[in-house]
Amino acid sequence: MDEPNKHPTARRGIYLLPNLLTTAALFAGFYAVVAAIDGHFERSAIAIFVAMIFDGLDGRVARITHTESAFGKEYDSLSDMVSFGLAPAIVAYQWDVARIAEAVAETGRSAVLLSRLGWLTTFFFAAAVALRLARFNVRSGAQDKRYFEGLPCPSGAAVVAAFIWATHEFELRGAVGLVAAYCVTALAGAFMISRFSYWSFKHIDWHSPVSFVYLLAVILAFIVPFLDPPLVLFTIFGGYALSAPLLWVWRKLRRRPPRGGPGSEGPPVR
Question: Which domains does the chain have, with CATH numbers?
Fold first, then answer.
């Protein structure tokens, strides 16, 4: 006699929910590429942030409904590669192409040279996302949950998307905008594959009571971005991207021995 089905149809249907959210994130990343090709850079940047929202929901929904699976993890990783790797890279490249003619007119540089710098920089970003995801998948079980090794891919994509959105909003054009786009994209990629430790905020206990000031800060964190979304989002995610390198430099400076003290190169004090 055959064993009864241990996974009834109703239980199987629950697994659709987190995977549908992952699909929504994938669609948002795909739409970001299409919008950038059509020249709608503001829409493409917003689509990347929408992908971040769905990407943050799918894992939480899977844990709440106890529908975590190996398939879901692999699907989420592939979706992240599209939404936070290829999509921001193509959006940034399309934005660069739209401003190369202005930079050529200002600097006299060859359009071919600037175009090659553009696609090399954006490819570096996409490759950095792939390497970052591969490293995370391999080491996820052994890492300290309080920290991320390297800038998370969604945050790196947010830096690039917010920059494109802000420069499009404030009409930053010409060679200055092009160089800034190259630097922001390259730095975001470099931080993702770095060894810097970024706070994951997973250690926060959302069930414990908090002070009124802390609650007010959380509320303002949701309200302030609506005042000037591109500028505020670029400031938030750009500050987060720089937080780990700046903290690393600060710790190095603190460990430096005082002048004339032990380990210094100066002559001993008599």
Answer: 11-253 (1.20.120.1760)
